[in-house]
Amino acid sequence: MARLEPDVRTVKEIQAAGGDTVKKCYQCATCASVCPLATEEVPFPRKQMLLGQWGFKEKLLSDPALWLCHQCGDCTVYCPRGARPGDVLGALRNMAVRELTEFKFLWTFYNKPWGLPIVFLIALVFVTLSMSFFMGGIPGIFHWDLIPSLHVEEVHILFLKLTSNVLAIDAVFIPLAGFVVVMVAIGVNRMWNGMVENAGIPAAYRMGFWSLVTTYLGPAIREVLAHSRFKECGANQWRFNGHRMLLWSFIILFFVTATVFIAADVFGFHTPWPLYNPVKILANIGAILLLYGVISIIANRSRAAAEGKLSSSYQDWFLIYLILAVGVTGLLTEILRLLHNGFYPGMYALHLMTVFMLFLSIPYSKFAHLVYRTTAYVFDLYSRDVRAQMKALAPVAAEAAAEAPGETEAEEGEASEASGEESSE
């Protein structure tokens, strides 16, 4: 009999990531009993606590249940041993983000306090260099004429008519968007392959990328937009409204950004647009929702931490306050522009830097939860269908297996009779 030894290194890694209470669990199953999102098929967080105590890293990081948990805190409140299962699963999600991505040094910068000035310096360099190349510096702040020929009112590239301001933004954010998309795609691919292998889904039930997208992505996105699992979890009501407003603000602001990009870059309708422009109105609505959502999250998280429902790590607060910085600098930029204040260009540059930091954080910070949780929802829907199909076909398979020996015996009997006839001849 093989002897099973715990992976002490992984256990210490979980403890260092914020799951320092994982060894306190004695498997009483209180956590899985009180969690309204746990099911018989997916009894989290009890199973994950056991895997964490033994250090089964691969099984943990390819477990979709990590992302089905919304860390409402009920399991932590009712745990008789103070094992804080919700915090342990939060630590495991943080580990998963690191393991799924490339360029892990960027994950370190985003998840360690000493990395904050480095991330800001990266944003400062990219934004400053781009504005210097295409705008001759930041007006009113400094003048750095690197390439004077680019500092004209409008640059013609093929059928495009681009201003220096548009070029400065495009030069930074188009390559950044491409990088983020590639990193996210790598992470999602690794996560999906790990979940499929961990779940032991037979090859006959595996689907292609487009089949999965067309069948399951729509329902998963509807579930994310409606925050339906938040509703199922009664203890999460204190988080529901703030998270939903923040999510919708991101969707609105993404639509506005895409609209402005197409209008300015392709059709030459350059900003700033008047306040009565429908897109501008929508942008301001998105900004208000963002500020409301993030301030609500700050207040509610502080209250929950005070009540002992959850603990907040640097990773939690970093993303929250970075989003707040994006909203505040954006609002101040608009106000200063309308007032024709001399600090407007500097505030605009600072806003671009905060947006750069937030955008780059998508694969490396808690922001990645939005992508990976959606992927887990897709897998949950897909695996449910697979289990239902396998269960429906089980009687047929059992019947076929039962008939197979009889058929074999008959064939053997026929062969014996044939050989007997040959011998008599």
Low-confidence stretches: 421-425
Structural domain tally: 2
Shape category? globular
- Strand arrangement, major sheet: 1-2
How would you classify the quaternary structure?
single chain
Whole-number mean pLDDT = 85
Helix content: over 70%
Q: What radius of gyration results from the CA coordinates? A: 28 Å
The count of strands amounts to 4
Pattern of helices and strands? HHHHHHHHHEEEEHHHHHHHH
Q: Can you summarize the main beta sheet?
A: 2 strands, antiparallel
By DSSP (H or I, 4+ residues per run), the number of helices equals 17
> Structural class from helices and strands?
mainly alpha
Beta-strand percentage range = under 5%
Report, as a whole number of angstroms, the end-to-end distance.
56 Å
